[in-house]
Protein 1
Amino acid sequence: MKPGERFPDLDLPDHTGRPRRLSELAGGDPVALFTSRGWWCPKEQRYMRGLCRLQDEFEVAYARIVVLSVDPPQVQSAFRAGLGARFTFLSDAERRWLPRLGLLETTDTVHHPYLPAAFTLQPDLRVHRTYNGYWYFGRPTQDELRRDMREITMEVRDDWEAPAA
Amino acid sequence: MRPFAFVVFDGTRLSLDAHAPGRRLRIDARCVEGEPVHGVFAHVCALPDRSAALRYDEPEVQQARRDALAWWIPMLGDELICLSTFALDASRCAGAITVARDPGWFADDPFARLFPGTVLATDVFCAVPPPAGPPIERYAGAPWPGGRFESDASVM
């Protein structure tokens, strides 16, 4: 997935089991989409705690956080509640999208999870920037996510410059 | 399109007739602009008293919406039909409504912290996908979670 390409409009259950589409979750706002190994990975736990600190800013800035993993909805729901997250998790427990996205972590032959990666997306799901999170420090920092959201917001909000009186 | 519709609440009844007696409240238009779901229940956390209002920016109103995203909507799961805050004008919130198949959950409604809840049987509300965020309203006067920013770069 390269910048400018459109990310697939994933159709998957969310952490409550309700069918969702990625475009519906975007709802006309910029999106930070994270593929995640799963609740059991200490690196994911650490990174998600950071995202929970960032969610307050995303919420008031009209941007979305979405996490995609192979955990079943009920596991995601428990993980999400434990983290204190208010953003949406999408469950690909059946691994319907995993091969199509080409994001299988081949070195984990136990869980067959998603490779950790991040995609910052325009509201129409065009990719703005990608991050390879196989190594922890490959993931976007909070400041990089703020920068990406600023760049996308500047591009898509006609009133970025406050309207003149 | 106007992102809200009106309901009227008199303390015991809820009506979509804007001229019915009671207090006129703005609601997310999607809740009443579709195929109604019959035999469901509404938890109306509002009062007929016209002075019963809080600013949307008050911390308790913000926190109730954060709680809705964090656990209220997940807890309701498939039971949820729709929910909306009630807006009065550009800045004031008069409470909220949650519509669900089973009223047994309503005792935990986070919006009941704002105004006491009344349970009503209803046949007029539509199923609306629950919000994924944000917990703040988009336009002054638009009841949360209704409305969206117009953008050419949106998948419709």
Protein 2
Amino acid sequence: MRSALALLCVAALVPGGTLKTKPHVDYRAFEKKLTKDRQIVHALNRLTFGPRPGDVEAVKKLGLKRWIDWQLHPDRIAENPDLDRHLRTIPAGAFAPERRIPPAQYAQEKLYRAIYSNRQLQEVMVDFWYNHFNVDMTKGADSMLVPAYERDAIRPHVLGKFGELLGATASSPAMLFYLDNWQSVAPNSLAQRFLKGKQAPRGLNENYARELMELHTLGVDGGYTQKDVTEVARCFTGWTIDRPNQSGPFLFRPAMHDNGEKTVLGVTIPPNGGREDGEKVLDILARHPSTARFISTKLAIRFVADDPPPALIEGMAKTFEETDGDIRAVLATMFGSKEFFSEGAYRAKVKTPLEMVVGAVRATAAEVSATNALFNQIASLGEPLYRKIEPTGYSSMNAEWVNSAALLGRMNFGMQLAQNRVPGVRVEASRFSADPVKAARQILFTDPAPETLRAISDAAKQSGPQRAGAMLAGLVLGSPDFQRR
Amino acid sequence: MLTRRVFLKKSALAMFGIGTAPAWLARALSASEAPASRKKVLVAIFQRGAMDGLNVVIPHGEAAYYALRPNLAIPRPDGTANSAIDLDGFFGLHPALAPLKPIYDAGRLAAIHATGSPDPTRSHFDAQDYMESGTPGLKTTSDGWLNRALLPEKIASAVRAVSVGTELPRALRGLNEAVAIDNLNNFQVREAEAAPSFEKMYSATRDRVLNGAGRDTFQAIKTIEAIRKQPYLPANGAQYPNGKLGQEMMQIARLIKADVGLEVAFTDLGGWDHHVNEVGAHPTEGRLATLLAQFGQALAAFYTDLGDRMEQVAVITMSEFGRTARENGSRGTDHGHANVMLAMGGPIQGGRVYGEWPGLEREQLYEERDLNVTTDFRDVLSELVVRHLGNPHSAVVFPGYESPKFRGFVTA
């Protein structure tokens, strides 16, 4: 967690003047309200994977407030028949348990949903929470376990109670396998005495315990110690998987459990609690004030800006605590804040590779018949889906995505897409205007920066009228303007 | 209009305050216009995930090592491929690193053991951050040590600082130009007609983040245009292994040999977080051995490929922290403290394991569980910055670290 306030405090303690500290963050831009038109494009850019043609008009007609409320209640939104049509192209049983599934194949569903679903905020939040509770699909049994994990542990809870989401991930075979808890055994347990063979587990594994506090709940500065890590690991001994290599379910094995007394963050957990020990830890963590702040900050970094104003975080964390971690309520607080619809937030975020590629497909109203090329493109821009090895997930900070290789990749993809050279993706070239201003508005849904307009106007003059439309669309997709949301 | 470079230099001056600008900055600003083509090069390799240094440079002379790791220890050197390769009677190399032994014997590879950070964190994310920013315990540093290691130049090569891969790591971010290149062959705007328009947009945009990276990109494209078109064949029969690191080391070798002004390069290899199945039924099996094989072959191929050019090149490896001295319950190790760094190249006084060995007895361990740090990682990196790159201002590269202790592994 990197709230600007905390940064300034740390900086002040450093002796000498040569240390480069983060400059004082000026939050005044978050006081300036956006114009009505910009509010709509802004909301579409943040709550969805990017506007499609017609979206701005639809939101205008419905009313921005109502549209946001609607997105917060996906069950009230009629789903796009196009999505169903695309999902039906995935053979039934393709993701059945006990099948090892390559990420590219599994990502079809994610990409189709991101591109075609009308329940856009829900899909954005599935992406957010999967990334928060990241599992690398290429790690052993996780190639079988991830589909059920995303479907049953993540998706049902993305707008629900944080505690339930946390509990669902903690007891999911995918997470137990990914962070090794399924092999963690109390040092003096029955299991250790009776399990034979070199491969049999024979002691604590603190991987899950640490990441649970650092990444899933409290945050690295949330106030836990190495002692807490070990104690939490003891609480979760016995949380394992029945037949992990055959996609077996969660299982609590009492013989692996540490029956002694534990102390977690100052709370005593009495002996002989069995499976309940882990449940108690999850309760303590889900209700901890550090968790409220950590989750609120991460949401604000995704939806508002890299350095969200402390007042916004306070408000969100307050809602989190008052509603027992109701994610929908925390989002409503954020979307209702003055900071969200401010100049400070407008175009403050650089799109991640997923957001850029899916956003380009949506903006050009492309018809996708195969997602492989899109999957590979997102990977080559630095975000291989379902293949993040580290439990941190991908960052949504701007600096992570801005570099030469990635920018060139984005320019090249923009040109390829507009000229119909992405396999499995078809754009209607005739729909792109040969007029620079119109072409830019078709893709950006707002006016381009003057520098961008100048460059594409020059290009329009040099390009033959036949090719001008596609050329301009490609340039706009690769422009600095389109890399922001 | 202020160019980005001028702007950066101005802010660099502002940062140090008028009148207190360090002498090197003033000197550098008036330095010669022509960058020397044959530069000294420093290559940094980051092993993400916390490599288990105790199983890489193995203290086979230490009984406690075998007591702590009944299932994981690499056997004492016995001449077979299933035992450690002896280095000095006390330490040995993991057998998967056999390709590095000839380089050690030639005096061009050194290990510095029990190195690490004074910060106690066992968070991968924080520890990597600290090692890349060069400021342990301080989260406010926004640029990296490898970027600060560059001396300002009036006309700098657009590819003086290169990260091979699809991201620019924190170590390379900062005031000096730095580019990420995933593959030299593809580093271009494919649609020739579109290239000038993109260049116009990115150099004119008022988006400060994208403008900087955009300018650097188009400069770099021009610099490497000539080498991009030639096929590359590694020299001296060097064979790079398949996989990320081998391919990326080959790109770095190619840039070095092209004499386009490369000074610092960065690449990384993930997957070292071996909480389970670190070692298989035999020492040469398991997740660590597989990764080390790739790692060792990549370094050895790079050394072979560069041949004489290795005289101007130093390679340094690092990982955010080490792992528990005692094995855990799942044939793996958990997050620990000190680790080992490897240094390779012409300027390296190799054939030795440097550093004070803290021992592995219970009372010698950090928090009774991990190898203690006896060499600050900044000591190691400072020595390379000062003695190899010739930048005397190590306290600028590692702010707040005024007097690093050199171990003497770099030729003065």
Protein 3
Amino acid sequence: MNTDANSISIQLDGKVHPVPVGVTVAAALSLRGDGTTRRSVQGERRAAFCGMGICQECRVMINGQRRLACQTLCAQGMIVHTLSSKVIP
Amino acid sequence: MSQDADVIVIGAGIVGSACAHELARTGLDVLVLDDRRGGATAAGMGHLVVMDDNQAELALSRYSLDLWRQWSPHLTADCAWHPCGTLWLAANAQEMGAAQEKQQRLQANGVDSQLVSAQALQRLEPSLQSGLQGALLVPGDSVVYAPNAARWLLQAYPQRIKLLQQGALTIEDNRVCLANGTYLAAPAVLLANGIHATQFCPELPIRPKKGQLLITDRYPGMVHHQLVELGYVTTAHHSTGPSVAFNVQPRPTGQLLIGSSRQFDDTSREIDAAMLSQMLERALSYLPGLVDLNAIRCWSGLRSATPDSLPILGPHPNRKGLWLAVGHEGLGITTAPASAHLLAAQITGSPPDLDPTPYLAQRFEPAA
């Protein structure tokens, strides 16, 4: 569906999005919208903060595994679910 | 001489806070000093567990669990009270034998527990590896977030308890000299500052015993009880070298708190990667599914260990007006309520509900 050589498609919360080759999942979440990755225990929205794998704010589900969005590069066909709906598998 | 309080408590961890709470409940004015260095209260697991290595430990922990359960309806939500019980896991026939002995010992002391078969264990905790022999369930054990429980204890008597965020420099008879040079006076000074007690009383036989913990992201429903290997009783608790034991706690948020490790004579707070790796391998051997989970933090803390692993509760043997509630090792959050009861009874001269003898500092004095 996407013929641009500089772009790949990934699935974000059930919708397919084109993203540039070489960007992280955290960047893809920012490009797509407000960057929300998950919710705190009190239900507040969280997004990537440190961008270097330390603060743990950007936890999302990537291909069925809990991963840090800022430490994971997008790959063709990758399935990403944010935890922002408060439903935790 | 004018006095600033009836009792000055040094240390606002769980033990100092419980002591202040109990002293205030009996009508005394208490001044609590804390230098905010932090100690074992914030580093530990907050597992409230009846331990039965010996009769004195059993008496102290059982009495404490009763008090914790009495407090539980009044704790603030942020204390994260979670009456999940403990499952003591038996990996082999020998440990199943230990589970049966433990069951009999607990029963003889009025503590409810039930033996769990291998099949029943799989139903209770499907994430555990399937080769275990069974377990002992102690349903009355609980979990609490200790830093907030300590704050709740202090705030329960706002008219009687004052908290000063100041460190004490020296204790001179009935006076405490603060870092800023101010002197505070009280008829009784109670030392409840855990591992830092030897700063004031170098003669106390307290050694740091380092522990490390790791916490995962939220995975609700994966573990339901505090899970502890029975080998914890037969190996980790009694060894003098470094050791690890499987100990996993489900937090109410769904996070898993993973322990445990023990190391003497390493007072650095850095993570020891080799010990952490051993600890996690041990945990994986019981809960293979941990391999897919994300850890979000790990940290270390120092238990203040005495030679017999019992706390030191009561008057200082040689210093009039100085009282001790220190040396709780890895069990201070559990045993804080009974410790406070014993101290308050001795300070006010009322008969305690427990025999205070096994916990007196005098037990370490060389025989005359």
